[in-house]
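Standup notes, structure subgroup. Blocker cleared on the NAP input:
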Amino acid sequence: MTADLPPIATTALPDGERVPVLGQGTWKMGEDARRRDAEIAALRHGLDLGMTLIDTAEMYANGMSEVIVGEAIAGRRDEVFLVSKVLPSHASRFGTIRACEGSLRRLDTDVIDLYLLHWAGDEPLAETIEAFGRLQDEGKIRHWGVSNFDPGDCEALFALAGGDAAAANQVLYNPGRRGIEFDLLPWCQRRGLPVMAYSPIEQGRIARHPALAAVAQRHGATPAQIALAFVLRQPGVIAIPKAGSSAHVAENRAACALALDDADMAVLDRAFPPPARASALQML
Ligand SMILES: NC(=O)c1ccc[n+]([C@@H]2O[C@H](COP(=O)([O-])OP(=O)(O)OC[C@H]3O[C@@H](n4cnc5c(N)ncnc54)[C@H](OP(=O)(O)O)[C@@H]3O)[C@@H](O)[C@H]2O)c1
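Run returned:
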C-alpha cells in the first residue's frame, strides 16, 4: 500500500529518539458512538501507512477518545508512539499522577510515550514537572512536554529545575496561523525542541482556500495536502491531522510526497503573509 509513497521522515526528540513527522490526531473521536468503527478503522489504516504517532488527551470526549485509541492500537502497541495530555486543572503534584493513571487505563496500556501539559494553567509548573519526573521513574511515561506554551511560557519552563527536559511543545500551526514562525518556532528549533503542529488543516476549514487550491492544482494534489506540506516544510515540526475516514487518512499520508517550491511559497505567502512582528499565541 505504501510501496509508491516515500517513507515518512522522522525528527529527533531532544534525547535523540526519532519520531515520524506525520501522525494522527483524535480530537472529536469518541463523541458519537455511530462513528466509532470508522474512527478505529481510520486510525488502524493510518498505522498501516506508517502514521504511528497518535495524539490524544484526557479532555477529548471526556476520555472516550483515549478509549477509541486504546481499541485501535490493541495488539499493535509496539508500533505506536502514543501521546496524551493532562488537563491543567489536574496538573498538581498528585493530580497529574491520578490523571495519567486514568489515561493509561482508558488507553489500555502500561506506558504513554509522550505526556503533555495541555496548556499552562493555575497549578504550579514546578509541581507538574515533579509529577512528570515521578511518572517517568515509575515507567508510566517515557517523555513529557507541553502544549500551547508561548515563548514567555517556554522561558519560564526552562528556568525551572528540570524544565529543560521537556521533549515537545504542541501548538496551533497551519498556513493561516503563522504567528509562531516569528518567535516560538525559531526558539524551539534553536533548542532542538520539536513543535507538534495541531489543527494543521484548520479543522478542515482551510481545505477550501483558493490559494491552497491553486498550489494543489500545480501538484495534482488536494488543498489539505498542501496545508500539510506547508507545515512539514519546517525542520523539527510534526503534523497531527485528525481524519475520521480511511480516505482522508490516505490523502494525508500522501502529503509526505510533496515538496513546495519557491513559486508555491510565493502564492502561499501572498495569501497568508508571514508574520512581521510578535503576536499572542493563538489556540483552538
Ligand atoms: N493541544 C491542543 O490544544 C490541541 C488543540 C487542537 C487539536 N489538537 C490535536 O491536533 C489534532 C488535529 O487538529 P484538529 O483535529 O483540531 O484539526 P485538523 O486535523 O486540522 O482537521 C481535522 C478536520 O479536517 C478533516 N480532514 C482530515 N483530513 C482531511 C482531508 N484530507 N481533506 C479534507 N478534510 C480533512 C477532518 O474530517 P474527517 O474527520 O471527516 O476526516 C476533520 O473535520 C487533534 O485531533 C488533536 O489531536 C491539539
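Discussed briefly. The first helix runs from residue 36 to 48.
Next: hand off to the docking folks.
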